[in-house]
Write a structure and sequence with these properties.
The chain is an alpha/beta fold and 712 residues long. The protein contains 25 helices and 20 strands.
């Protein structure tokens, strides 16, 4: 990937949760051009070595500039294009439109993310009076210069029907705040004059492309088009002109908003001085939106936000009106649903009553969504399939908001869009009254045929939607286990007292790192609270952290034995208790998985300080199975032996093998199968037990075969 800093950006790449400093904090900040002549030349020079022409190189450069400002573009939104010439398979030069492709983000786009379509082929479509979305997509794919390219943007025809060489499209917060008004068109005419032409709202596709082309033809000297309640297009004959026009026109809207007065609708409503914490209510909310699915639950992952902007939004006295009006731009509805769920204020000490209230409001939300679907669906010639009725954003007055999704990434996107909504609506309310597109148009986008066609095509991994915590996850069996669960689609929290080690594992597997010393009750409480804030709750605990103390039991001092019990027994109990509390609050069951040891059932000489607490932990696992089976919580253990890890180090392997007169290889493979057992084998056992929905109180032996350690 082309280094982002070399194209004049504030940080490298485009990470979902990272934005330039100050963007979220400031309500209005004057938009500034980040164009750098040197960076532009660097981009051209860099891509020329890959055979990419100057036009496309500059298109990548300015697309990234736009895509890395969340006030303009978020999560795949917006698009850009350039008209240029390229060689086809026969070597002939053809005029093409390079336009952003499906699945690419403007913030880190590369040349393949701007597929080339034959310009003459798609411009011929202008002659048609009607064109279905499916036929449009087919025509665009048929015009691709490279058939392996991603689908061109649904707004490809809009870019093609306009004559300009470079065209930029964003969903600018400021422009949305100005246009999302009952009199948005009048406000735009007042602040822009004849610099732009206005386009009434039309769903993206052929009709919008035709409308924009006709309106531009009546106003050929404009710098851009304002698509009311949708976004803004700017254009130019070179990359800088189109980009600078975008910055200039957005700045006009920002300056108008800066003169607005504080909105009374955002006056703070009466909130109790003490409310429950986000980590306390998250499992309740997560459980309430889960749906039963056979022997398991269809869960969602959550992402919590409580920035100043969010708090102002959720605490506003008119939140029930402005928050349920609809999305600030139609694109958001696919990620956020038409409306958020608003729950009562969770009073400190009142979690049982809050849980009952949440259950009721979730049921009402689902019923309301079903009614919304039915009244709009019955008007269609081709009936749609109803999506799940659960919210994707939950507003909690006094606490903040949660984004929800099938994965942590989806939850982050929903939360980011909800934060954007909070800013846009706040500015819109200060200018006038927030108003978005009508419900019928919202439904048309949410149930767009191009989106419906994707239903059923995504195959989820076995542990998708599950949240897993792995203690001692920074190395050895813990690290292998964290990776194994991530590989099965789970969201993983890597817990370790060595935060750097946890971060190293978390970075590789795409999980989060949490500092946790399982011998400290306060550290455990803090760690599990962090998991709830990050993901909304917990479904599977792999209680793995441990260390081996040695010594003859008749000689060992009490301090050594107590230290071993503190880690190898009480550490498991603390984490299991914390996990069970979360699982019970969710009400969707869960799984406790304990790493015991061969020592628990087949003690070896001089290993009493390690084996005794491990034996206790094995029976701890069974006690949890007995006491919490009625809660749907399964409890199982893995009994492993001779695994290279922090417990069984190279030095220890050397000494043990010498004592037995064996080579290290023979010692490690000293089992019935004659094969060394790895940390990955143990990790797979944990995964298998997590998927065994009707197995509890079991101990799974992973040692290659050791009859002396077999349970009986």
């Amino acid at each position: 990937m082309y280094p982002a800093q070399r194209v004049g950006l504030e940080y490298a790449g485009r990470l979902d949760h990272i934005v330039p400093a100050g963007i979220w904090q400031n309500r209005i900040r004057s938009m500034k051009s980040k164009w750098s002549a040197k960076s532009a030349r660097d981009a051209v020079r860099f891509y020329s070595k890959q055979g990419v022409g100057e036009d496309l190189a500059l298109r990548v450069y300015t697309t990234r500039l736009l895509g890395n400002d969340p006030r303009l573009v978020l999560h795949g939104g917006g698009n850009t294009s350039v008209k240029t010439a390229m060689s086809d398979t026969a070597g002939d030069k053809v005029d093409v439109l390079c336009v952003k492709g499906s699945g690419w983000d403007m913030g880190d786009i590369e040349p393949p993310g701007l597929p080339a379509v034959r310009l003459d082929a798609i411009r011929k479509l202008r002659r048609l009076k009607k064109l279905s979305d499916e036929d449009m997509v087919n025509a665009q794919r048929g015009a691709l210069l490279d058939s392996a390219s991603p689908n061109p943007s649904v707004e490809t025809l809009l870019h093609a029907f306009l004559p300009h060489k470079f065209i930029d499209h964003t969903h600018s917060d400021a422009v949305l705040s100005v246009t999302d008004q009952p009199d948005g068109a009048d406000i735009c005419r007042d602040i822009y004059g004849d610099r732009v032409a206005l386009v009434p709202y039309i769903i993206p596709g052929f009709d919008l492309a035709q409308s924009c082309a006709r309106i531009w033809e009546k106003h050929p000297d404009v710098e851009g088009l304002i698509l009311l309640k949708h976004g803004i297009f700017t254009f130019g004959e070179n990359a800088r002109e189109a980009y600078d026009r975008m910055i200039d026109l957005v700045t006009v809207a920002e300056k108008r908003l800066a003169r607005a007065k504080p909105a009374k609708s955002f006056s703070k409503s009466r909130i109790p001085s003490r409310t429950a914490s986000a980590e306390d209510i998250a499992p309740i909310l997560r459980g309430a939106v889960a749906a039963e699915a056979g022997d398991d639950w269809r869960r969602m992952v959550m992402d919590f936000r409580d920035t100043p902007h969010v708090m102002k939004y959720v605490n506003g006295r008119d939140v029930a009106r402005y928050a349920t009006t609809g999305p600030v731009t139609p694109d958001h509805v696919i990620r956020t649903k038409p409306k958020p769920l608003i729950v009562p204020v969770p009073k400190a000490g009142g979690l049982p009553s809050f849980a009952a209230e949440v259950k009721s409001v979730v049921a009402n939300y689902a019923a309301g969504y079903a009614r919304y679907f039915e009244r709009n669906n019955k008007k269609l010639k081709t009936l749609k399939t109803m999506l799940d009725p659960m919210p994707r954003v939950i507003l909690v007055p006094g606490v903040g908001l949660f984004g929800l999704g099938n994965s942590a990434k989806d939850a982050t996107i929903a939360a980011d869009l909800a934060e954007t909504t909070a800013r846009v609506v706040a500015d819109a309310e200060e200018l006038g009254v927030y108003e978005c597109i009508p419900e019928r148009d919202i439904f048309e986008i949410e149930y767009w045929s191009l989106e419906q066609a994707k239903l059923g095509k995504t195959v989820e991994k076995p542990l998708s939607r599950h949240v897993v915590a792995v203690t001692g996850g920074g190395s050895g069996i813990g690290a292998a286990t964290a990776a194994a669960f991530a590989g099965q689609g789970a969201e993983v929290a890597v817990l370790d007292r060595d935060l750097r080690a946890a971060e190293a594992v978390g970075t590789v597997i795409g999980g989060i790192a949490v500092k946790c010393d399982v011998t400290s009750a306060a550290s455990v409480d803090k760690a599990f609270a962090e998991i709830c804030r990050a993901f909304g709750g917990l479904d599977i605990l792999v209680s793995n952290a441990g260390a081996a103390w040695q010594g003859r039991i008749g000689d060992v001092d009490e301090k050594t034995l107590r230290e071993s019990f503190e880690l190898n027994f009480w550490g498991h109990q603390r984490c299991a208790q914390a996990a069970v509390a979360i699982m019970k609050a969710q009400g969707t069951g869960g799984a406790l998985l304990f790493n015991t040891s061969k020592q628990a059932v087949n003690p070896g000489p001089d290993f009493g300080p390690y084996g005794l607490p491990k034996a206790s932990t094995l029976f701890l696992s069974r006690q949890y199975a007995i006491d919490h089976g009625a809660d749907g919580i399964r409890s199982n253990a893995v009994n492993a032996d001779r695994i290279r890890s922090g417990l069984l180090t190279g030095a220890m392997i050397t000494s043990r093998s010498k004592a037995r007169g064996l080579s290290e290889e023979d010692y490690m493979a000293g089992n019935l199968l004659g094969r060394e057992v790895t940390a990955g084998d143990v990790a797979q056992a944990f995964v298998d037990l997590s998927l065994a929905k009707k197995t509890t109180g079991a101990v799974l032996t992973v040692d290659g075969g050791n009859i002396a350690a077999a349970l009986r």
